[in-house]
UniProtKB/TrEMBL annotation:
The lineage of its organism: Bacteria, Pseudomonadati, Pseudomonadota, Alphaproteobacteria, Rhodobacterales. The gene is glf. It comes from the Bacteria. Its EC number is 5.4.99.9. Its cofactor is FAD. This is UDP-galactopyranose mutase.
Length: 381
């Protein structure tokens, strides 16, 4: 069959590869001038540093199948994300762990003591937390909430934590040991030559053609037997019901000779500091040596129609609009919506790959059993 894949990010690339290996002809298009979507990496022309152009990407997963898959296409080197935060004029370790607690309160507590100490601080009058703020106060108390959660969350989401659902914050967002590895997953690493080289290897198959600087036009779908759409769900329908809300990011690039901050990611928890974090990209490739350094100062704000959509907002209003777009999508023929934009969800890379592999399998099985192909393999709601 002739398959059109809109988007040369992870979703489009993985589905194209799986279907090309099954003998289908895959045409991958992307409006941008490069492959890899938001995972795109490229070397900075001045310093040689490998840049995560759309923000830092750390690969982590518990899915052995996905880990084996990415290792087919790239050599992964060990990398663990160890984030720091500047709050109220001091630097602390994140996620909030025993070191953070002991530094913040000037204590030398052991795990059990720290647990009891934080339980004392928690507001136990909140029995059924509904909002982010109630959840935080219920589990960590006012001091840690103010220093590490409140200001950062306000900047990231552009609203008060009293307006955000409790579900955004994990049940107990504190560790009572010295583990400062940001992710819990068994497999973690960075592709040695960057994500774009990995995705180029995924797309490197005789059954796949890639066209860049090529925005979708409906004529393309008419020339194909089936379309996989990894662009914005509302974009497929020309935003006819309105725009689904996203947060976007502005990156202010600056350079430095030497080591600017000594770590890859430094958060800024205070409300009066306008940026949410600074990322120093050479620390994402600790096996490389560069004299020069490139950093991104990162700001979050509501996305306007021409901005790059980063984080779906998915509050009550957006979910109502999403439900309407889902109904339109389900009435469409010969198109399946995939990926972070096509299903309007935040997806880590490993989840994106898992869903893409499952989607390709579903498609192949549906074709061989002559079943209709659904608009969504993973429902967005
Ligand atoms: C700031 C940020 C940091 C992240 N950090 C991590 C991390 O540390 N670890 C992790 O696992 N995941 C991370 N992610 C998630 C990761 O970026 C996604 O999992 C991944 O990008 C999803 O791939 P995709 O192919 O679905 O979407 P995308 O990468 O967005 O690809 C979609 C592509 O479709 C193209 N397109 C859209 N519309 C059209 C059109 N009309 N015509 C033609 N082409 C079109 C776009 O140009 C784009 O290239 C992060 C995400 C963000 C926003």
């Amino acid at each position: 069959m002739k398959i059109l894949l809109v988007g040369a990010g992870l979703s489009g690339a993985v589905i194209a590869r799986e279907l090309a290996e099954a003998g289908h002809q895959c045409r991958v298009i992307d409006a941008r001038s490069h492959i890899a979507g938001n995972c795109h990496t490229e070397r900075d022309a001045d310093t040689g540093v490998m840049m995560h152009v759309y923000g830092p990407h750390i690969f982590h997963t518990d899915d052995k199948g996905v880990w084996d898959y990415v290792n087919r296409f790239a050599r992964f080197l060990p990398f663990q994300n160890r984030v720091k935060t500047t709050s109220q004029g001091r630097v602390y370790s994140l996620p909030v762990n025993l070191l953070t607690i002991n530094q913040f309160f000037g204590t030398t507590l052991r795990p059990d003591e720290a647990r009891a100490f934080i339980e004392e601080k928690a507001d136990t009058s909140i029995t059924d937390p509904q909002t982010f703020e109630e959840q935080a106060l219920r589990f960590v108390g006012p001091e840690l909430y103010e220093a590490f959660f409140k200001g950062y969350t306000e900047k990231q989401w552009g609203c008060s934590p009293t307006e955000l659902p409790a579900s955004i914050l994990k049940r107990l967002p504190v560790r009572f040991n010295y583990d400062d590895n940001y992710f819990f997953h068994r497999f973690q690493g960075m592709p040695e030559d960057g994500y774009t080289a990995m995705i180029a290897a995924i797309l490197d198959h005789p059954g796949i053609t890639v066209e860049l600087d090529t925005p979708y036009v409906p004529q393309m779908a008419q020339e194909a037997d089936h379309t996989f759409w990894s662009g914005p769900l509302d974009g497929y329908f020309d935003y006819r019901l309105g725009h689904l809300g996203y947060r976007t990011l502005d990156f202010e690039r600056f350079t430095y000779q030497g080591d600017y901050q000594g770590c890859a990611v430094m958060n800024y928890g205070d409300r009066d500091v306008p940026h949410t974090r600074i990322t120093e990209h050479k620390h994402f490739s600790p096996w490389e040596t560069h004299e020069g350094s490139v950093c991104y100062r990162e700001y979050s704000r509501a996305a306007e129609p021409d901005d790059i959509p980063y984080y779906p907002i998915r509050m009550v209003e957006e979910k109502e609009l999403l439900a309407q777009y889902v109904r339109l999508a389900e009435d469409s023929q010969c198109v399946t919506f995939v990926g972070r934009l096509g299903t309007y969800r935040y997806l880590d890379m490993d989840v994106t790959i898992r869903e893409a592999l499952d989607t390709a399998l579903y498609f192949k099985e549906s074709i061989s059993s002559k079943k209709p192909i659904l608009a969504f393999v993973v429902p967005p709601i």
